């Protein structure tokens, strides 16, 4: 210390200025060391859980292979003939994949079918004929001689439905009645639409792939919009809510006397006999909601602005680390493929059950499982839920680590954080290499609750056949409790993975720290989660609708899809649009999960700084503003 003072005197500088510079350099070194420590501090946690998880995977792998080898998905969908053989699957009918109902009589365009005894055929009679063909005779069906006699051997014209069933052609006068009899449902008038809809999906694959890419592009554009205009969006949404509730209240009040004549039963909906009085009460409730939203906007305006700024900071962080922008695409592809693989194996396992026809029409069927098969089904569901939950946990930990590394990086002289390009890959490596056991532990809890939930749902379905009111009430309460526990555990797990990425604690310790942090940051976390929810709703709607609109435009305007002579012709644009909207919804959820996880991690990191007695020099100003807004009388802030 004396040496520093002497050097300062010799150089013509005051000792206080030199000491200030030394402290500043020391602080910078501390922050640099802290950034390095974020990677070096991590060690393996919950190793016993990792061993259990590996053993479970090793046991599940041969079981999955057995399901693939023993099952046949065609058993679930192909028709069943009068002898109980599944067309195209069972011996003797393996080369006859179509189900055909023999005619019992045919006169003057009318057709009568033997619905109880369908047969398997190699092709549907007349299905390959052009639509303009008027030929009434389409060969003979020898198999019909056993069920309908010689008269039934004369084949009638059919069309292929769902690639498995020979349905009477629409040229028959009683076509709708025949199809309704076959299906056992009133679907005769919708058969053509159903056939067109299903057949449009395979040919629409280029449009669906393009919709997936459009969903990604719109997702990135939405994040870019939030980066600069998050506050504008949330104020617009609040204004729209106020206007919508206010307008709806005015509508109900002014039309309260006319609702009866228009067939609107507001009173029955809320349990009142007087429809006019019920409408006015609903109007008052709507106006009250408008006032509540307005009061929230006024009283928490500073906190709302701070939360919006935090969302903008989270988007800034994503764009400053380009590798994070690839995570939604990776998640949508990897998890989507995993879901498809697991569903395929589950269908294979279900197909090993004994199958019998229900109603004798060859379409509906009953599945008869042994006790051992029920156990295998539960085991398969549990392992599937565990794998899916583990993939989600790895994704969340990876995001949390990358965001934490961004947070603890100090601002440079241009107020920009210079973060390495490998933060995401570091998070993935550390998550799998050090904390796979902890992630498997948290995932195990989710998988157990999901499995119990499915078992209770199955029990409830079985109870509907016996109508036991007491058991129905017990099951409803149990399902509600399990569902509530699952939602709570999922929320705690998210924050536990964030704490784990920062502290390298085990799962139990991280969950305990997360609960403590949620109490300390309760107000700020509520405001931030509310803002994130608004942005997620807008983003999900935008991406989903954009995907659907783009596909519909392709199917109706692009000649490759709208020209009936094209091999890619989409016969039902609405069906293709619906499928593309599901794809867009899935991609949108991946983007919104990234946004939610990034904003929560930033807030959690600042909470850790405060708990450790640090000043949060690396924290974005918006975070400080959000957390400490309650100290100035505007909304909930840090709880000491």
From TrEMBL:
Location (main, coarse): membrane
Transmembrane segments: 47-67, 204-226, 232-253, 281-304, 324-347, 375-408, 527-554, 574-595
Keywords, ordered alphabetically: Glycoprotein, Membrane, Transmembrane, Transmembrane helix
A single Gene Ontology CC term: plasma membrane
Gene Ontology terms, MF aspect: transmembrane transporter activity
Transmembrane found in the keyword field: yes
Localization annotation: Cell membrane; Membrane
Topological type in the membrane: Multi-pass membrane protein
Annotated family: Belongs to the CTL (choline transporter-like) family.
Family matches, as PANTHER family: CHOLINE TRANSPORTER-LIKE (SLC FAMILY 44), CHOLINE TRANSPORTER-LIKE 2
Functional summary from the UniProt entry: Choline transporter.
Protein name, as recorded: Choline transporter-like protein
């Amino acid at each position: 210390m004396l040496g520093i003072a002497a050097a300062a005197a010799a150089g013509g500088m005051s000792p206080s200025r030199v000491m200030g510079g030394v402290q500043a350099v020391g602080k910078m070194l501390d922050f640099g060391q802290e950034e390095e420590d974020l990677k070096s501090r991590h060690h393996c946690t919950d190793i016993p859980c990792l061993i259990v998880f590996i053993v479970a995977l090793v046991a599940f792998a041969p079981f999955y292979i057995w399901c693939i080898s023993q099952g046949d998905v065609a058993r679930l969908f192909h028709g069943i003939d009068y002898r109980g053989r599944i067309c195209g699957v069972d011996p003797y009918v393996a080369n006859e994949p179509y189900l055909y109902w023999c005619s019992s009589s045919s006169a003057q365009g009318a057709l009568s079918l033997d619905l109880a005894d369908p047969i398997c055929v190699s092709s549907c009679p007349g299905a390959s004929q052009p639509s303009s063909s008027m030929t009434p005779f389409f060969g003979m069906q020898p198999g019909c001689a056993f069920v309908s006699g010689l008269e039934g051997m004369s084949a009638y014209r059919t069309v292929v439905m769902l690639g498995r069933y020979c349905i009477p052609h629409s040229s028959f006068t009683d076509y709708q009645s025949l199809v309704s009899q076959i299906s056992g449902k009133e679907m005769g008038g919708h058969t053509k639409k159903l056939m067109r809809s299903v057949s449009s999906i395979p040919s629409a694959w280029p449009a669906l792939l393009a919709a997936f890419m459009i969903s990604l592009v719109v997702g990135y554009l939405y994040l870019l919009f939030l980066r600069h205009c998050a506050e504008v969006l949330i104020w617009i949404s609040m204004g729209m809510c106020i206007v919508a509730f206010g307008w709806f209240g005015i509508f109900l009040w002014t039309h309260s006397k006319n609702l009866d004549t228009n067939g609107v039963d507001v009173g029955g909906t809320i349990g009142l006999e007087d429809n006019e009085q019920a409408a006015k009460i609903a109007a008052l409730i709507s106006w009250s909601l408008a006032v509540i939203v307005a009061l929230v906007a006024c009283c928490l305006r500073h906190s709302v602005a701070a939360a919006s700024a935090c969302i903008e900071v989270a988007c800034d962080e994503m764009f400053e680390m380009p590798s994070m922008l690839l995570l939604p695409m990776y998640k949508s592809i990897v998890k989507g493929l995993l879901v498809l693989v697991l569903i395929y194996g589950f269908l294979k396992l279900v197909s090993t059950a004994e199958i019998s026809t229900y109603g004798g029409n060859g379409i509906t069927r009953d599945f008869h499982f042994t006790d051992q098969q029920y156990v295998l089904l539960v085991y398969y569901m549990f392992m599937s839920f565990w794998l899916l939950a583990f993939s989600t946990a790895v994704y969340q930990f990876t995001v949390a680590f990358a965001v934490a590394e961004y947070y603890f990086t100090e601002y440079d002289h241009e107020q920009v954080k210079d973060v390495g390009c490998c933060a995401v890959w570091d998070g993935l490596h550390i998550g799998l290499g050090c904390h796979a056991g902890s992630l498997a532990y948290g995932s195990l809890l989710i998988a157990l609750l999901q499995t119990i939930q499915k078992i209770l749902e199955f029990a409830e379905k079985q109870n509907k056949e016996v109508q036991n009111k007491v058991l129905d009430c017990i099951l409803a309460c149990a399902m509600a409790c399990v569902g509530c526990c699952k939602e709570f555990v999922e929320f705690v797990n998210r924050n536990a993975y964030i704490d784990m990425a920062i502290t390298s604690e085990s799962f139990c310790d991280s969950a305990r720290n997360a609960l403590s942090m949620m109490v300390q940051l309760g107000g700020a976390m509520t405001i931030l989660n509310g803002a994130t929810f608004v942005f997620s709703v807008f983003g999900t709607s935008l991406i989903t609708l954009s995907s659907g609109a783009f596909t519909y435009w392709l199917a109706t305007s692009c000649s490759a899809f709208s020209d009936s002579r094209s091999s890619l012709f989409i016969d039902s644009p609405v069906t293709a649009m619906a499928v593309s909207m599901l794809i867009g919804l899935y991609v949108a959820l991946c983007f919104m999960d990234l946004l939610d996880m990034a904003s929560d991690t930033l807030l959690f990191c600042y909470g850790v700084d405060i708990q450790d007695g640090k000043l949060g020099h690396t924290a974005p100003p918006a975070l400080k503003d959000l957390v400490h807004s309650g100290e100035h009388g505007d909304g909930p802030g840090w709880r000491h």
